[in-house]
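User: Predict the complex with 6-phosphogluconic acid.
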Amino acid sequence: MKPEICVASNLTTLSRKASKIIFRVIRDSFRHKGFATVVLAGGSTPETLYRILVRKKSEIQSKIWERVYFFFGDERAVPPQSRFSNYRMAQGAMLRHLPVPPRNIFRVRSELGAAKAARDYEKRLRGFFKKDPFPRFDLVLLGLGEDGHTASLFPGSPALKEKKRWVLSTRVSSVKPPARITLTLPVLNSAENVMFLVSGSNKAWTAERILNRKEELPARKIQPRSGRLIWMLDHEAARFLKRRL
Ligand code: 6PG
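Assistant: Here is the predicted structure with 6-phosphogluconic acid placed in the model:
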């Protein structure tokens, strides 16, 4: 399925547009199943969106928020209170401000160390999604690295070849911290909705390589089998994209 491309003037308007789509997905999922599953992105880009979701949280009634389950697309193998922790960023910017019960937040127990944390996280996901061959998350949020990585799936990583496991630990010497835990491509591509949030001129060339040239960078391998793929970019990040994609 072709990706939907949405370009906004800056990160704030991009995040506002994204929040509207997210509220719609949560409401639809609640209507269809009585709950919603959302995978959060790490890094810095999503923080603006997370704060807007809190500011606009009354768009979703409390009784619905209580049935929203949050997961993480990836995590760094650091303690949850570390400044490098994706959980710490999401917890501080959003989760602690939403009427979501703590049991609904599936934190990667990164303090166990990457390999053990990956096994533990997969076990808990399988417990939640029961017998599904792969979990079908209602919404997966992703960021884009300048090298074309997404979640903690980096160029050349053996994790990109994984066909069965839901969660893997990886070690990436080019980034700090190097030890990571990540959802795998089969899981990400089983999602109902996948949304990339990309902001800043430093991502423009990478976005062009993926969306126009279709270079096989890790983020390009995100092609939901039967889900919706949305690329949300601000003007800076979209400046090399041709009009017609
Ligand atoms: C992480 C993220 C990673 C991130 C990109 C973009 O743990 O770092 O999952 O994939 O989304 O590196 O990061 P920025 O939003 O900080 O540019």
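The radius of gyration is 17 Å.
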